[in-house]
C-alpha cells in the first residue's frame, strides 16, 4: 500500500476497516477460546470504549501535565492491591500487559540485587514473557521441571535450582498451559530462606481467583498476603475484562517499585522518568480499565466468577466424557487443556475451526503432551453445550481423518536448514510445497501440518521457524 495523495473520506476508511476484518475471529460470543475475554455485557463494553476514547490522546509520559492519569492509576492500582492482599496499600504500576508487568518485575529484582551473573528460576510452565524479559535484560533463565501428574512445580526443585546468581524465583497462579496453581506458599518460603525475591505471575488469575474463591472454589493463598511473595502481576485485560493494554504489577516494598523505574538526565532535552518500558503512551487503556472496574464493581466480578466456575466445571466434565480426550491435571482456575488418545489434537483444532470455533493448540514440551487449550470466560456458560458438541463432532472427524502424516525426511530437512541463508520468498515456497501456502491471496491454511512439524522439532528450531513464519506473513 502506498500513502494516498489526497485524504480519503471517513466513510470509505470505515468501510475498508470492515473489509479488512471480515476474516478475523469474532471477539464476542465465546467461540474464540483464547486471546479475547468477554463478559457478555454490552453495557460494560460500551462504558470502557467511551472512557478509552475520552483518554485516547492523553499522554502518560508526564503525569504533571495530565493529573487525570495519576488519579486514575491510583484508583486502578489501589483496587487491585486491595483485592490481592497488599496490607500496605500496594505499590504498583499500570502497564500495557502481562509481558511489560513481568519485564518490570524482573528489572526491579535485577537492579535490587545487582549480581554479576543474574538468573531467574522459573518452572517450565512459566510464561515465555520471563524468557523475553531475561533476553532483553541480560539475565539467564534456569528452568525447573514440573510434576507430570499435577503439572505443578515442586518447591524442593526450586530450592535446588537457586544459586548465588539468582535474582528472582517465579511461581504461577495459575500457569497458563494447564490452569493449575503452583504451591505459592512453599515456593515463596524457599525463596525467602535463600534471600531471593519471589514473583507470582497472576497475569491470568489475579483478577479471577478471588472471585472463584467467593463462588466456592478451593483457591489456595497466592497473593501478596503470602510471606515471601515480593511482587505479583495481574492483567486487567484478561479477567478484568478491560480493553487490551491493561495490566498491573504490584510490589510489597516501595523501594523495589522504584527499581522498576527508569530515569535519565544525561541529555539537554526534557527530563525523562518512566514507570514503564514505554515512554509516550496513550492513557486510553488506563481509561478503559478504570471504567470497566467501576462499571462492574465487586458484585459484578463475583457474578462473573460464579458463572465462569459453573461453565468450567461443566466443560471439564463434558470433555472428560468424550472418548479419547483426557483433561490434563486438575485445574483450579478456568483454563482447561485436553490431550488426544488416538486423536490428533492438531487435526481436531482444524476441524473445530471449520465449524466456526477456535481451540488453541499447545505443542508438547518437557514431557507434557501436545494438547488443546480453552480459556473459559463470563460468556462461555451460555454456549458450553454448543462448544462440547463441536469438540465431540471435531474429535470424531479427526479420528476418522487420522493423524497428520508428514513427508519422509521433512522434519530432518527443516531441522537441518540454515534458515538465515533463505530469503522470505524461498521459505514461503518451501512451506507451500508441503501444503502450507502463506503467500498473499492463498487464504487461511489449515494449521495441523504446521503444528505437527513444529511439534517434532526441538524448541530452538521451533523458534527459528516461527520467526520466518511471521516474517513471511507480514511480508516486506
UniProtKB/TrEMBL annotation:
Keywords: Lyase, Pyridoxal phosphate. The modification N6-(pyridoxal phosphate)lysine is found at residue 238. Transmembrane segments: none annotated. GO terms for molecular function: aromatic-L-amino-acid decarboxylase activity; pyridoxal phosphate binding. Gene3D superfamilies: Aspartate Aminotransferase, domain 1, Type I PLP-dependent aspartate aminotransferase-like (Major domain). It holds the Pfam family Pyridoxal_deC. GO terms for biological process: carboxylic acid metabolic process. The keyword Glycoprotein does not apply. InterPro entries: GrpII_AminoAcid_Decarb (IPR050477), PyrdxlP-dep_de-COase (IPR002129), PyrdxlP-dep_Trfase (IPR015424), PyrdxlP-dep_Trfase_major (IPR015421), PyrdxlP-dep_Trfase_small (IPR015422). Its cofactor is pyridoxal 5'-phosphate. Belongs to the group II decarboxylase family. Sphingosine-1-phosphate lyase subfamily. This is Glutamate/tyrosine decarboxylase-like PLP-dependent enzyme.
